[in-house]
Specification:
heterodimer, A: 150 residues, alpha+beta, PH-domain like, four-stranded mixed sheet, 8 strands, B: 51 residues, mainly alpha, 2 helices, 73% helix
Chain lengths: 150, 51
């Protein structure tokens, strides 16, 4: 029996290829920093971009042992961890994106006091429909699809 | 088994929706370490190789 089910996780191939490319260029540029007139501020910003691309880990998973939904943001060390007990969740609402109907937009967790919490943040997640179906199935909560207003 | 219903009802009574995930603190924690680190590294590099 597995202890956790991952609902969303960022793509490691993208982070390794893109972040590795940026970090390699930054490293070469740092090695030749005394020979060119590349501005140091731009070098620092490019290095920060590469660092974020390479090391950031963002995942939303279901912890079966403690019956809770965990959202975790890591960048070498833990930045933020948010824990939502599944017992407090009443139902799950899934809203469709207005412009692209195949893309699923916001995921709202509605709590027993009637307050909605946006799980996916400001950025709509692709493939979030499958994750929400899985979440509703595993947690035993009703899911509701909201159509955009015409 | 006697403790299970108590554990189930407790978060329902106390829990309210958390604040949004992203805030200023998260961005500060994400951005400040690499900016400071690479800034110091660039200064050290420039000092060592003498730019």
């Amino acid at each position: 029996m597995n202890q956790k089910t991952i609902l969303f996780k960022n793509n490691l191939i993208i982070s390794y290829v893109m972040g590795g490319f940026v970090l390699a260029i930054v490293g070469l540029n740092g090695y030749f920093l005394h020979r060119n007139d590349f501005p140091i501020l731009a070098w620092v910003l490019l290095a920060t971009l590469g660092y974020l691309l390479f090391f950031i880990r963002h995942e939303v998973y279901l912890d079966h042992a403690n019956n809770q939904l965990v959202r975790r943001l890591k960048c070498i060390f833990l930045i933020k961890e948010m824990i939502i007990p599944l017992d407090a969740v009443e139902r799950i609402e899934l809203a469709q994106d207005k412009l692209q109907p195949r893309k699923k937009g916001k995921v709202n967790l509605v709590f027993s006091d009637g307050e909605a919490f946006n799980l996916s943040g400001t950025q709509p997640l692709y493939k979030v429909g499958r994750a929400v179906e899985l979440l509703g199935e595993l947690a035993g909560k009703p899911t509701k699809m909201l159509r955009p207003q015409e | 088994m006697a403790q299970h219903p108590v554990q189930q009802t407790d978060p329902q009574a106390n829990f309210s929706a958390p604040p949004p995930f992203y805030n200023l603190m998260v961005f500060a924690k994400l951005l400040l370490p690499p900016v400071l680190g690479f800034g110091v590294l660039a200064m050290v590099l420039r000092y060592v190789v003498g730019g």
